[in-house]
Design brief:
Blueprint lengths: L4 E6 L4 H11 L5 E7 L12 E4 L8 H12 L3 E4 L2 H9 L7 E2 L4 H7 L2 H11 L6 E4 L2 H11 L3 E5 L9 E3 L2 H10 L6 E5 L5 E9 L2 E13 L13 E6 L3 H14 L5 E9 L5 E8 L6 H7 L3 H9 L8 E2 L6 E6 L2 E7 H5 L5
Parallel strand pairs: 1-2, 1-4, 2-3, 4-5, 11-15
Antiparallel strand pairs: 6-9, 7-8, 7-9, 10-11, 10-13, 11-12, 12-16, 13-14, 16-17
Helix pairs in contact: 1-9
GO molecular function: ATP binding; metal ion binding
Pfam families: PylC-like_N (PF21360)
Keywords: ATP-binding, Nucleotide-binding
Length: 348
């Protein structure tokens, strides 16, 4: 259908975009990849065929800059790799001169607000940690009364565990929210556990195209974060579970009855071992998308083909059956390791 697929990747100097680009390089299709970045330093990290420095997504000239690139480079599809740019192109999608493959504006807005997502999940009957929106210090007191002596604080918006901390007394919690100037933008929730799992999926007009589960084994540079959650997976593992599949799909449908685009669901296990949805990274893949590509499921390629109306399979859930680990860190090339190799060292 296309001799060369011409795609624009926004935020190309960041790790999420880099893994997306590397996945497309693994495809048997030919891609011409144009990147953009608003940071004059990160710009140089881009692995696109050509990269443009553009205004920040919050700036007035942002959409015009993208449209100029679209026209010059004959772009067929735009992919944004970070929340800020997803929010902007979602809001102004009618002004763009080429395709985007995104959920509805309403869905993007809800999923980029963790508290709004929580309210819909609670209403739908999903297991979720009791959560309070913190407007004043009185709300913190209520949280401790209802949730016990350990609460989980985090910002309602932002990735990589932004603003998260475990607080075991009122003074610490209050000081943290005030330090972050977070009244009205922070929540307090029941603390579940350190164990989390993800479910990355693509839908088109309400139909599931493909999905894959992945467990986090440990966080990279976890000691640099007050909560121990850096948002940067250091070790990931292919892991599947019917209950994870079921809860992930229910959490998506509780927000969007007709899913369309990428829905990357984050879940944390409670004390009973039930995965609770905590957020959906909407419109983009997890940073470690290249892990799944190397393990045999190239979701960025499937995303592009689906967006452009090219033939793809549908209904694929957890097609990666083998146990693989993905081990990564700053300044290290990531490594795909078979589970059997890891287990050889369990008793040592």
């Amino acid at each position: 259908m296309f001799k060369t697929i011409r795609i624009l990747v926004l935020g190309a100097g960041g790790s999420p975009a880099t893994n997306f680009i590397r996945s497309l390089r693994e495809s048997h299709h030919k891609f011409y990849i144009v990147g953009t970045d608003a940071n004059k330093y990160y710009f140089w990290r881009s692995e696109a065929d050509k990269t443009y420095l553009i205004p920040d997504a919050k700036k007035r000239g942002y959409i015009d800059a993208i449209n100029r690139i679209v026209s010059t480079e004959k772009i067929q599809l735009i992919y944004a790799a970070n929340d800020q740019e997803i929010a902007r192109i979602s809001r102004d999608r009618q002004k763009l001169k080429t395709k985007v493959f995104l959920p509805s504006k309403k869905t993007v807005s809800i999923c980029q607000d963790k508290y709004l997502s929580y309210l819909l999940w609670e209403k739908s009957g999903l297991c979720v940690p009791k959560t309070f929106l913190l407007k004043t210090s009185i709300d913190i007191k209520k949280a401790f009364v209802e949730l016990g002596n350990k609460i989980w604080l985090r910002q309602t918006k932002g990735a990589f565990g932004k603003g998260s901390i475990i607080a075991d007394n009122f003074q610490i919690a209050k000081a943290w929210v005030e330090f972050k100037q977070g009244w009205g933008y922070f929540t307090a929730a029941s603390y579940l556990s350190p164990n989390s799992i993800t479910w990355q999926s693509i839908y088109r007009n309400g139909r599931l195209i493909c999905a894959q589960g992945r467990r986090r084994i440990l966080w990279e540079i976890e000691g640099r974060s007050p909560s121990g959650i850096s948002g940067i997976t250091g070790v990931g593992k292919i892991e599947t579970s019917k209950i994870v599949d079921e809860i992930a799909q229910k959490s998506i449908l509780a927000i969007d009855k007709r899913p369309h685009g990428i829905y990357s669901v984050d879940m944390t296990f409670d004390k009973e071992g039930i995965p609770n949805p905590t957020e959906i990274n909407i419109g983009r893949f997890f940073t470690t998308s290249y892990f799944l590509t190397k393990a045999g499921l190239n979701m960025p390629e499937i995303f592009v083909k689906t967006a452009l109306g090219m033939p793809t399979e549908s209904g694929l859930i957890n097609p990666i059956r083998k146990e693989y680990y993905w081990i990564r860190g700053v300044d290290f090339l990531p490594k795909l390791i078979a589970g059997a190799q890891i287990k050889k060292y369990d008793k040592q």
